[in-house]
Amino acid sequence: MATATKLEVVDAKGKKAGSVDLPEAIFGVEANVPLIHQVVTAQLAAARQGTHKAKGRGERSGSGAKPFKQKGTGRARQGSVRMPQHRGGGIVHGPVPRDYSQRTPKKMIAAALLGLLSDRARANRLHVVESFGLGDKPSTKTAREYLGSVAPGKRVLVVVDREDQVSILSLRNLQGVHVLFQDQLNAYDVVVSDDLVFTKAAFDAFVAGRAAKEDTK
């Protein structure tokens, strides 16, 4: 399915308020599923704290002396109550603090994101709105009703400009809605969302940012 070169911009009343260009370099990229999987897996791994810790035999409290003599009791020989087979003893090969992050080149991260954005555009799951019609006062109810008419999916990712504090306050408590700034857009949040909604200001800033990165190569 070919990607459209333009996308309608919807105003606060749900009517067409113009259009935006969809650059081929951003929204016409072939999605590489194995690459996307690798990047998303690396992103989830990097989010792990890695602070899990189990105490070994040498870290448990308790006497280091033998609990009973070596011979003559008829029981198996034991060296310490801190051994793993005893209650309260150390853990064998237990987890220790570690860094789960994986090295992922920036070009791979960018390629995965652009592939997902292109896939959303081809599936008509990419939307651009002029605004949420909120004015100067936040309104979660207004934002919910408007967003429901624009993006029918259960999980919606909304990308806004950093200056749009009214939209952020109105959207942040909606169930199934995740809000990001345009410079925070990432593969994981796109892949777990059914619909992707940009405000026009955020869309323009994102496209301009990508174009600037291409020019520096």
Automatic annotation (TrEMBL):
Gene Ontology MF, one: structural constituent of ribosome
One Pfam family recorded for the sequence: Ribosomal_L4
Keywords: Ribonucleoprotein, Ribosomal protein, RNA-binding, rRNA-binding
UniProt GO BP: translation
GO cellular component, one term: ribosome
Matches recorded under InterPro entries: Ribosomal_uL4 (IPR002136), Ribosomal_uL4-like (IPR013005), Ribosomal_uL4_dom_sf (IPR023574)
SUPFAM superfamilies given in the database record: Ribosomal protein L4
Stretch list, region Disordered: 47-101
Function: One of the primary rRNA binding proteins, this protein initially binds near the 5'-end of the 23S rRNA. It is important during the early stages of 50S assembly. It makes multiple contacts with different domains of the 23S rRNA in the assembled 50S subunit and ribosome.
Similarity remark: Belongs to the universal ribosomal protein uL4 family.
Subunit structure: Part of the 50S ribosomal subunit.
HAMAP family the UniProt entry points to: Ribosomal_uL4_B
Full protein name: Large ribosomal subunit protein uL4
Biological source species: Leucobacter chromiisoli
Gene for this chain: rplD
